[in-house]
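ok so I'm stuck.
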Amino acid sequence: MDEITKLEATLHIPFRNSALLQQALVHRSYLNENPDFNLPSNERMEYLGDSMLSAVVADKLYKDYPDFSEGNMTRVRSALVRKETLARIARYHLKLDNYLYLGHGEETSGGRAKQSILADTLEAVIGAVFLDQGFDICRDLILRLYEGEVEKAVDDSLTADFKSQLQEVVQSKYHEIPAYRVVSADGPDHAKEFIVEVVVGGRVMGKGRGSSKLGAEKEAAKAALDAGT
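replied:
not stuck anymore, here's the structure
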């Protein structure tokens, strides 16, 4: 089984024109050193895939989270289409780092692990799927790749908002900024549990626990909001 056929199997998509999928893997550095290669770089496909990804994610957020404001949807979409998320999916879900066409210089400088290259390649693959299979198959692929990612990004976004929400409430009501203090940090380094209190004017307004100090702070802020601070 050749490399392109293996990637088609990973994608669960048999391409009509496998050259499109191959092109999605061609970094411009490869062409700089192999000018006679029979395919262009993946940059135009990357542009197309970026647009498709943004549209599909926006549509899912709009339909699945009817109570979300424009700001909520924008924050979550940004988290889902950012370089770090794309690179993680590219490397660990699809192993695209194994298929890249890279120039020697890019190869020796660790190009297969670079987030920017991996993210761009995933977008190019999405673009190639759209060109070869059409919108419905492309949308289905994106939703499969993002299974679990959307819910996690939504949870992270809502949790991140707790501290800013609490600060707005406290500043408006008490003209102060909430302070966070660590009550305890127990357990081994790889499995610590932090307990944090949020304090306003010397009074404890909420308490939270988490595997990190920041996580515990967010939980404390949520507790304070839930208590009607």
